[in-house]
Design a protein that fits this description.
Elements: E1 3-7, H1 14-38, E2 43-49, E3 52-58, H2 67-80, H3 85-106, H4 119-134, E4 141-144, E5 147-149, H5 155-163, E6 168-170, H6 180-189, E7 203-208, E8 218-223
Parallel strand pairs: 1-4, 5-6
Antiparallel strand pairs: 1-8, 2-3, 7-8
Helix pairs in contact: 1-2, 1-4, 1-6, 2-3, 2-4, 3-4, 3-5, 3-6, 5-6
Length: 224
């Protein structure tokens, strides 16, 4: 069985996941899937993060919508792109995980529109579902290393990691590092935080974060 490993030593965000998947070869599938299902255009550029090559997601989408509308967008995307049962469950669970964490942090009747309410969150979820499917992740063993968070972590991200008993640690970097969307993607695709397999031959993709930081701001994703 194929093994896929996340190395979130500089945290994880939705755009970093998509960048890593693009770097592993799923770029065209994600671009076409998002265009077909959601009507938005995304692109990726090659960049360096402290000397390390990475793919960076580029999107001009800056729209808000209510959670109910976001659920409709996921359902419509699943129908249009003909997601299989594994993909449907992943997309749905990823959104629900973010929503429940936001509710827990901010109160059931006062859900602040942070991750929930941004259309780019749906782009990240649908793109990750397409990209992970293209790379065979739903039929693979997927593990993650401990997730790094910065000194200014998003409360909802911490809530997600704690609830799923995912190991995380703080880096002395004044930055969010791990977003709720990134945390939700990892906990819903990986079977857990585990010991990394012995390194034989592997293929690696790197997704870069939007900010330049003192260390290479990248998420590494390996197919073993």
């Amino acid at each position: 069985m194929t093994k896929i490993a996340f190395f979130p030593s500089m945290g994880c965000s939705g755009d970093m996941v998509l960048g890593a998947l693009a770097d592993l070869g799923a770029e065209q599938e994600m671009k076409e899937g998002i265009r077909t299902a959601l009507g938005y255009e995304i692109s990726f550029k090659d960049a360096l993060r402290q000397g390390m090559h990475a793919k960076i997601l580029e999107s001009n989408v800056d729209e808000k919508c209510l959670p109910a509308k976001m659920l409709e967008m996921i359902r419509a995307s699943a129908d249009i792109l003909e997601f299989d049962d594994h993909q449907i469950k992943f997309a749905w669970d990823t959104f629900e995980t973010i929503l429940e964490a936001e509710k827990s942090v901010h109160g059931f009747d006062d859900v602040h529109l942070h991750e929930i309410g941004n259309v780019d969150t749906i782009i990240d979820i649908v793109g990750a579902t397409v990209g992970l499917g293209a790379l065979g992740a739903f039929n693979s063993e997927v593990i993650s290393g401990p997730v790094a968070v910065g000194t200014e972590p998003a409360p909802a991200a911490i809530q997600i990691l704690k609830k799923r008993k995912f190991s995380f640690y703080e880096r002395d970097i004044k930055h969010e590092l791990c977003t709720p969307t990134g945390a939700s993607i990892i906990v819903n695709i990986a079977q857990g935080v585990g010991r990394m397999p012995e390194m034989g031959a592997y293929k690696e993709g790197c997704g870069g974060g939007s900010s330049e930081l003192p260390l290479p701001n990248v998420l590494r994703l390996r197919i073993l």
